[in-house]
Structures are given as structure tokens and as C-alpha cells.
Amino acid sequence: ATQNKTGSVPGGNRMQRAPALVSTGWLRDVLSGKGTAAHPVRVLDTSFSLTGDPQPFLTRRIPGARFFDVDGVKDERPHMLPPASVLENALADLGVNDTDHIVTYDTHPTGIFSAARLWWMLRCYGVSNVSVLDGGFAKWAKEGGPVDTAPPTRDWPRGKFRVGQFRPELVLAQRDVLANIAHAKFQLLDARSEGRFHGTEAEPRAGLRGGHVPHSISVPFTSCLHPEQKTMLPPAELREMLVRRGVDLARPVAAACGSGISACTLALALQVAALPVDSSVPVYDGSWAEYGANHKRKKSSQQWPVLIA
Description:
The structure is a single chain. The longest helix is centred in the last third of the chain and has 11 residues, at 262-272. By secondary structure, the protein is an alpha/beta fold. Strand 4 (101-105), helix 3 and strand 5 form a beta-alpha-beta unit. It has helices at residues 24-32, 84-93, 115-124, 136-142, 174-183, 194-198, 235-244, 262-272, 287-291, and strands at 21-22, 41-45, 66-67, 101-105, 130-133, 171-172, 187-190, 217-218, 253-256, 283-284. It is built from 9 helices and 10 strands.
């Protein structure tokens, strides 16, 4: 069989595209049996903490959820896209099958943070049956949704999961970002906080410079979320927010952040916003963990340009 660049057989997942977001009400009805779904629903907790806090999954989770480790299922750099075989094995180990509708969530207080990372990873490999829980665990718990507090168990059979065709247009490499500084083919939106973007707030990872990629635009991922409801802003409000921050909605966009986590939330928001340009928003996978650390590399012939203003 023909293989894609990461070694997986194309076409392993051919289900109809799932919506980018599903509501807590929909998931609550499906899990309780009051509602129906076209395919079996598999809920995955993708919670991640920059401070290394113990995973809340161990003590509280949506009933039936299983834990997907976005910090462990990766390539060489923090959170970088893993090879297809690594992703397939991780999901099969969680009992996920090709025919499942995957719903991701996390416990970040903003509502959506690392859940969009798995959504983006799967889209990179041609998997369309994946949705993010709008509002995440924060909204689920606030609404009184059922919460499992018993110690998690692993009593499920291994699944059968294969990815589809790799989509290189969704992944930016360092060479793409460097070339764009000179040629400005796309707008690079930075999902980090404004303090980190301007270099006035310390980076959480040691050894990284402060500042941002020249010509990039600050769009903190939190600006895409409703502060009270924890849900993604409606498309019209997302577009208005982007314009206020200086984004040209008619030009191509890409997303970056600290290590590829919140950039995926921004990519999700950009798809929800239904921009007039191509909705396939790429993510700079290495993000600031790669770009901001370049000055320490012995093999680097020159330091990458950084703006702190």
C-alpha cells in the first residue's frame, strides 16, 4: 500500500467530518442515554499544566473519559507532532477505534486549552471524526454535569485505530517562519499572553528569550473564549476581535504560541470564525520553545530576529 511521509497507510479513517465543537449539553445527553450519536463517542481528557501540577484526571473526570497525554505523545521537542505510528498506538492503547467520534476536553479554567491540541494533531493526519468540548470541564462542572471521582481503571480492550493521509499544509516548520519574516506570505498570530509576546513577562521555560517573531500579531488564546461561559466566542465576535487586533481577514493566517498547545486553540477558533480565506490554518509546531531558544544553539550561524516592543 502507498504510505504517507510518516509511514501510515492513507485512508485508515474515513468517517464523515465531526463538528469542530460539541456542547456540554449534547455530550451529557449522549452519555446519559437521553441523546443519540451517529457513532460511538470516546471522551478523552487531554489536560496539561505548564507548572507540572498533578493531573486532575486522577481525582475528577467526565464519566468514561480516558487520559491522553499531550505532554508524552510527541516528537523530540515539547509537544511537537509525533509520527503517525506513535499517535496510532497511543489512541489504540486507550481503546479508541476508527469508528469512534472522539471528543476531547481539558480542565483548564479558561474552558479550552490543551483539548484543541489533539484535535489539531488528528486533523494533521486526516482524521475528521474529532470534536472539542466547548467550555471543557470548567463548563461541565459549573452546570452540574456528572463527575467521576473514583480512582481511574484500565479495563478496556485495545482499539483498532489508523490515521489517514498526512496533511503537511497544517504544519509550519522553522524555515517557513523565517522565510515569512522577509516575504510576509501569511500573518503569524501568537497565542501567548501579551506580556510574553512583548517580553515583559518571563517565559515559563528556562533559557528562552522574551519577545516575538517579527511581524507577528498578538492574539492571546483567551481572547477567543467567553470569560464567564468558558465557550468559544461566536464566529462574528471572533472575526470582530481579530480585526481589532490588526488581523486582515482576507489574508492567510497561521498560529504559534509557546510550545504548540494554545496555538491549536487559536487554530480551532480561526476555523470556527469561518474566515473568507482557506480554513486550513497551519500551526508552527516548534513555536517559541524552538524559536526563542535558537540563541543557545552551537550550530546556529546567526541569531533569529526577535522583537521586544
